[in-house]
Amino acid sequence: MATLEEIVSEISRQSDTAAENVNSLIEDKLIEFSNMITKEAAAHLVARDLDAKIETAQTSKFQIKNLVSGVRNVNLVARVFKTSPITEFQKKNGEKGRVVNVFLSDGSGYTRLPLWNDQVKIIEDGSVKVGDVVQVYGGMSKDNVYGEVEISIGKFGSIRKVDDDSLVPGMEDIGQGFIQENPQTKISGLVPGNFDVRGTIVQVFKGNFIFESDGGDKAMFISCLLDDGTGDIRTVFFRGLAEQLSGTTAADLDALDLASRHDVVKKGVLGKEIMISGKVKNNSFFNTLEMVADSVEDINPIEESKRLVEELEAKIGV
Questions:
Q1: Domain boundaries along the sequence of the chain
Q2: Is 165 exposed, middle or buried (0-12, 13-18, 19+ CB in 10 A)?
Q3: What is the pLDDT of residues 243-302, one digit of tens each?
């Protein structure tokens, strides 16, 4: 692996920039990223800005389709084709935490990149938005709760906008493969894949309802049974979705015993009619299908009745 001095020397040679100035630019990068990246990572960003080609044995450039769990120091360029709403939660130290999911594609596949706490600012202030091309440097790939491989950048990786829009396919091309709306499907017709499902929560499974996230903070989950009259499916909600659905928080539940937690969650969600989007997958332990939700909406009976009347009138030409 090249040392920092060797990287600086190579940047200086290729860009015809004095080594002293290169080091100054590296320090500027560290300030820009609030010292959340290493000097080596900052040096690679400076190299990119100066059009210097630097490769190290630890830096792997991937097509997203080739990502597998457990790879360290992932370096890739991709386009942001979707971002989730910013979700707030309470850390175990009592402070407020935030998370947003950024969905990336390079045309070969797609992946999810969660940004935590201060990292959320680049989405919030518009520094990075849907349609932008970004470079992810120093990431690590791992399996998430949806059974997919996602990238985490932690304290030492980085994500930033790339000005060259031609590096990856455009939004229109990416959209043909990864941005279609999920089909709304009856539960009896579900197979592994991404679907929208409408149903009623008829059972809340007992459990802890609290788990410890990667950052050590406590987050909430709910496992329940969703029924639409054609069948039922175990459905799981994590973090902000669980709090949104139940009307309570991980911090509130954490103060209760297990029986009381179940009572609170059951009171908040049992009998609710909802529309969810999510991923259906095989649960090998139970040998059944289960659904992991990534969005949820309560169904308002009055508004739903109005919508159905409008659809009927449109069909018959009233």
A1: 1-58, 59-180, 187-313
A2: exposed
A3: 989 999 888 999 899 999 999 999 999 999 999 988 898 887 778 899 999 888 887 655
